[in-house]
Amino acid sequence: MAGYPLGVITLVIVFLLIYFGLAHRVLDRLYLSDRAGLALVAAMIAGSFINIPLLSGPITTSINVGGGLIPIGLAVYVLYRAGTAKEVWRALAAAAVTAAAVFFLNSVLMPTEPWNFALNILDPLYYYPLVAGIVAYLVGRSRRAAFIAAILGILALDVIDFFRLLAAGVRGTVAIGGGGIFDITILAGVVAVLLAELVGEARERLQGGPEAEGRPRSLLASLKIGQARKLLNEDADKKRGGQDE
Question: How is 137-195 classified by DSSP, letter by letter?
């Protein structure tokens, strides 16, 4: 339970950004409406305190609703709605690379305390979402692929732990998406999407708008809706500014 507050605080910030209309662009990329985004964030916060038992025995296994079940469902939904088969495979490949990078970080660079001095600058908890978010974006490149890769890549650690315990024949407990992994999963997804949004926004501004050639019509429609919302918000801001003067 001690690891929950950081992830919950992050979700509260995301909730406020959506509520005040500052996350239209990202939600459009993930095929979500504002209402759906608010409902998902609220469900993840509430579900962070609920664990569903999966297996009992030498290796007790459960899945956390807020940190495992809902993020996996959202990742699968975004993957299903992906525009092209190429994007699907890129997202899955990015998830595999992200899982490998985080596993390497966990088992090689930070196996025991004290950690290497160069890595001891930040709390170890922050390295996992940072590495996962950066790797997920670099391999996935798009906002959707980066989000999927970050979420699935982190949660894959719990699955790897299960099979490691199973192979070793020792007793243990695996809580998929629970404990500290809840925080890491949420932060990794936010870092990946934020990085993709910042870089993607810069690239689109330099090239005069998003690329349309070869994109599916459903995606282009989503982009146009996001741009229309942005223009309406800018017009409203200008009107308010004129009235203030």
Answer: HHHH-SHHHHHHHHHHHHHHHHHHHHHHHHHHT--EEEEET-THHHHHHHHHHHHHHHH
- Give the residues across from 51 on adjacent strands: 64
| Strand duo 51-55 + 172-176: pairing | unpaired
Higher pLDDT, 65 or 239: 65
Q: What is the bridge-based pairing of β-strands 51-55 and 59-64?
A: antiparallel
The pTM of the full predicted model, rounded to 2 decimals, is: 0.77
Tokens of 201: 């926004």
What residue numbers bound the domain in which 12 lies?
4-205
Tokens for 187, please give them. Answer: 């932060």
Query: What is the H or E stretch that residue 173 is in?
Result: strand 172-176
CA atoms within 13 A on the CB side of 49: 5
- Dump pLDDT digits (tens) for 110-150: 655 544 545 556 666 778 888 999 999 999 888 899 999 99
SS3 182: helix
Give residue for tokens 């990329």: 29
78: its two tokens:
């975004």
Q: Each residue of 197-214: pLDDT tens digit? A: 888 777 766 665 555 444
- In the structure, what pLDDT confidence band is assigned to residue 78 with cuts at 50, 70 and 90? very high
Q: Considering its fold, how many domains does the chain have in total?
A: 1
Between helix 70-80 and helix 143-168 the angle, nearest 10°, is 130
Does any domain span residue 219?
no
- Measuring CA to CA, how many Å separate 55 from each of 28, 61, 100, 162? 37, 5, 25, 11
Residue 216, in any domain of the structure: no
DSSP 117: G
Q: Report whether 226 contacts 28 (CB < 8 A).
A: yes
What's the chain's average pLDDT?
80
